[in-house]
Amino acid sequence: MPPRIQWTTRKDRISVADVAALFRNADWARERTRSEIRRMLKHTDILVMARSGRKPVGFARVITDKTFRAFVEDVIVAPEMRRQGLGRLMIEQAEMLVKKLGIPRMELTSTQTHFWKRLGYRRKTNSTCMVKYLIPVISPPPLRGRTKVGGSRRPPNLLSNR
Ligand SMILES: CC(C)(COP(=O)(O)OP(=O)(O)OC[C@H]1O[C@@H](n2cnc3c(N)ncnc32)[C@H](O)[C@@H]1OP(=O)(O)O)[C@@H](O)C(=O)NCCC(=O)NCCS
C-alpha cells in the first residue's frame, strides 16, 4: 500500500466535499453538484474512501441488490497517487465487502480496461452495455481547447455520463 493511507467504508465518515474534490479529476463526474453527490452517497450501498492525511486520494462505490448483482461505479484515484497500487487496493476492499454479502460477481463498464484486466476482470462475451437517456442532460460539459464563435451554443451532450 502507498504510505500513510487511511481507509474508510463508513458512510458517516465520507464527506460530500471530499468526494467532490476527487470527482474534479474525472471527466464523467466533474460537473456533479454537491446536492447530487449528497443524494448519491445516501443511496449507494458500498463506499470506499482513501485519504492521505486529510486529503482524499481515492474513491470507489458499489451499487448492489445484495442478492445477485453488484455494479462498481466512480473509481477514481488522485492523479499524483496513481500507479502505486491504490486503485487495486480499493477494488479489493470493495470485492471483499461484496463477497461477504454472498454475491458471486462484480460488474462494471469502463474505458480503463488495462487496469481492470490486471485485477482479473474479463470482457463479457455475451452482452454489451446499453443505455437510453430518459432525461436529457441540460448543462453541456465545458468546451475544451475550443473557442466559441459568434456566440453560438454547443448543443447539450446527450451522451455525457453524468
Ligand atoms: C484507473 C485508476 C482508478 C487506476 O488506479 P491506480 O491506483 O493508478 O491503479 P493501480 O496502481 O492500483 O494499478 C493496478 C494495476 O493496473 C495497472 N494499471 C493501472 N492503470 C493503468 C493504465 N492506465 N494502463 C495500464 N495499466 C494500468 C497497473 O500497472 C497495476 O498492474 P500490476 O498490479 O499488475 O502492476 C486511475 O488511473 C484513475 O483514477 N483514473 C481516472 C479515473 C478513471 O478513469 N477511472 C476508471 C474507473 S471505471
3D architecture notes:
The protein is of the alpha+beta class and 162 residues long. It has one domain (5-118): Gcn5-related N-acetyltransferase (GNAT) (Aminopeptidase). Helix content is 24%, strand content 18%. The protein has 4 helices and 4 strands. The chain has a 4-stranded antiparallel β-sheet. Strand 3 (55-64) and strand 4 form a beta hairpin. Helix 1 crosses helix 2 (34-43). It is globular. The two termini are 31 Å apart. 17% of the residues are buried. Bound molecules: coenzyme A. Residues 26, 75-77, 82-88, 110, 112, 114-115, 118 line the site of coenzyme A.
What key phrases describe this protein's structure?
single chain, 162 residues, alpha+beta, Aminopeptidase, 4-stranded antiparallel sheet, 4 strands, disordered C terminus, binds coenzyme A
Summarize the structure.
This protein is α+β, with helices and mostly antiparallel strands and 162 residues long.
